[in-house]
Amino acid sequence: MGNRLRLLGPDDRVAVDALLAQRPIETLFLAAKVAMFGIDRRRLGKLHGFERDGVLTAVCLNGGTVFPAGLDPDAIPMFVDAIGPLRRASSILGPSMAALGLFVGLAERWPGGWGSYANVRRTQPLMVRRGAPDIEADPRVRLLTMRDFDSYLAASVHMYTEEIGSSPYKYGPGYESFVAERLKNHDAWGIVEKSEVIFKADLGPKFRDQAQLQGVWVHPDHRGKGLSVPAMAGMLQEVARTHNVVSLYVNDFNIPAIKSYEHLGFEHVGSLSTVHY
């Protein structure tokens, strides 16, 4: 039957779910998107599927984020051709081998659309823990609400600018809506002192018993004081009530953060890579 690439649709849902379930920690981002939007091109974006002898072996989402999944190297050049020169995405994210291969292919084939980027995070250790950490928690940690919006927004902008090197407003005013949704969905945790967020941590993609920890940030005035581990322990103990498996990915050069996560019981299980535009 050979190899072929095609756009996937609702009838392919079972095959897509089965493929993503082979490596559920790595593919949580895409699994959560598919669970939320289905394989609907208008809501999810285009989902390209690579089949080898009639079996789906790799997929690639082309939406606001480009996300490849699957371990078939023959799929990468076909994904490059299918995505084409017009870039709508603000990032490429995925398991390192697939994401970096796709990035190099796109940048070489379509340099006008994909060759200029803000930064490349080539190695981001993927870490996971199960259950609640047995560490004394900071009792000040709580769910943040819309009453905390202004300070939480300021903390989120500060964190984004530190991490990416540019403002989250470069794509327009939508970042405030994104931050508000985190609060409304009860996905933001923090410590607030005198109406100022001094620690925050967010939940990103969620699927079944999995959730991904994102957006961990400590106010510069409170860094180096041993705040982050007990604060994250407080959040994780609450999150474990609904999500037994919590994963995260972190820049490989952020050694203090990696050591903190290891202290909290996170184990290394793989590597993701991100390209920001």
Automatic annotation (TrEMBL):
InterPro entries given in the database record: Acyl_CoA_acyltransferase (IPR016181), DUF4081 (IPR025289), GNAT_dom (IPR000182)
DUF4081 domain segment(s): 45-152
Annotated Pfam families: Acetyltransf_1 (PF00583), DUF4081 (PF13312)
Domain of life: Bacteria
UniProt entry tagged with the keyword 4Fe-4S: no
Keywords linked to the UniProt accession: Transferase
Domain annotation N-acetyltransferase: ranges: 205-266
Keyword Disulfide bond attributed: no
A GO MF term: acyltransferase activity, transferring groups other than amino-acyl groups
Protein name: GNAT family N-acetyltransferase
Source species of the chain: Tessaracoccus antarcticus
